Amino acid sequence: MSAYRAVAAALIGTALGSTALLGLAGPDRMGNGTLTDVEGLLVGHAVRRERPTGCTVVLAREGAVAGVDVRGAAPGTRETDLLDPLNSVQQVHAIVLAGGSAFGLDAASGVMQYLEGEGIGFAMGAVRVPIVPAAILYDLGVGGAPTIRPDAACGRAAATAASAAPVAQGNVGAGAGATVGKLYGISRAMKGGIGSASIHLPSGLVVAALVAVNARGDVVDPATGAVVAGVRTEDGRALADARLLLRQGLPTPLAPGGNTTLGIVATNATLSKTEASLVARMAHDGFARAIVPAHTPSDGDTIFALATGRKTGAADVGLVGALAADVTAQAILSAVRHAEPLPFLPSARSLR
């Protein structure tokens, strides 16, 4: 590495507060390294016992400004129109990510029930209406009857379990039935999951991400270019590398809706709804860096952004968005590295 590149890399690493993606030595990680490093946010998971599927809830009991950006062509969402900066409600009280395809949106109803019981919500006369946007991923073909999916009880359980503890990762919540590397279908896929990561700056700015990784494509480490998890060779014993397979052409395209990676990026910065939406848009770069291919016609890739405003003063939205992209890529890698195998699906840990 030239002296110029070495200095530039060191400066970038210092600015990000984390050098994991650059492969450089850096300062000790602050906080617990997950989304709950953003003060004021709680995370809870619930998993159905009958088959691997579940939901994940991020609670903002005091409210948080939110935005969203949907890039996949096959999304399943709830209350995302409300996050349009032109619309009146300014804060949300939770975000829900769930498996179960469109059926899983019912999990948000259970979170609303929980929050209503806690007296949390948007004041409408004598009633408080909790604002709970949600998005789902497709896992109906994984490990059991597709009639088993996250429901209102699952959402309520996840909300009840929410805490400021380090976020559990891997085969939990919305990542319980998540898979990756489905260019040739589930028979050559691998286990995905939930991952989380955070970045701290000396200024006190915190940016974090939580991602449910259920991609058609491979998960690739941006620092090395190595495939971490993805489509396997025909004998199932090794990684095939989607980048090479794409150049050969695929035998049949997958039907829309069979995949979807879902993310939540969060910060303690003070942002408007417009700014939060811009941060969500920039965070999608993290998907593109760590998933190959991303944003396909069969993915419903969606990212929400939350801003608690605990750090007051004007925020550099470009900086927050750039950090959000980096921490999103870190969370994607963490998801597959924490994933455990299922009887019919190896994980990055088990495929050696």
Explain the overall architecture.
This protein has 352 residues and is of the alpha+beta class. The protein folds into 2 domains: 1-29, no CATH class; 31-338, L-amino peptidase D-ALA esterase/amidase. 23% of the residues lie in helices and 23% in strands. It has helices spanning 3-16, 107-117, 152-161, 242-246, 273-290, 317-338, and strands at residues 42-47, 54-70, 77-78, 92-98, 122-124, 127-129, 134-136, 179-180, 190-191, 193-200, 206-213, 218-220, 227-229, 262-267, 291-292, 302-307. The strands form 4 sheets. Strands 1, 2, 3, 4, 7, 10, 11, 14 and 16 form a 9-stranded mixed beta sheet that branches. The longest helix is centred in the last third of the chain and has 22 residues, at 317-338. The radius of gyration is 19 Å and the shape is globular. The model is unreliable at 1-28 (pLDDT under 50).
C-alpha termini separation: 31 Å
Biggest beta sheet summary? 9 strands, mixed
Low-confidence stretches: 1-28
CATH class of the largest domain: Alpha Beta
Features:
3-stranded antiparallel beta sheet, disordered N terminus, alpha+beta, 9-stranded mixed beta sheet, 352 residues, L-amino peptidase D-ALA esterase/amidase, 16 strands
In short:
It contains six helices and 16 strands. Helix content is 23%, strand content 23%.
What is the strand and helix layout of this fold?
Blueprint: H1 3-16, E1 42-47, E2 54-70, E3 77-78, E4 92-98, H2 107-117, E5 122-124, E6 127-129, E7 134-136, H3 152-161, E8 179-180, E9 190-191, E10 193-200, E11 206-213, E12 218-220, E13 227-229, H4 242-246, E14 262-267, H5 273-290, E15 291-292, E16 302-307, H6 317-338
Parallel strand pairs: 4-7, 14-16
Antiparallel strand pairs: 1-2, 2-4, 2-16, 3-7, 5-6, 8-9, 10-11, 11-14, 12-13, 12-15
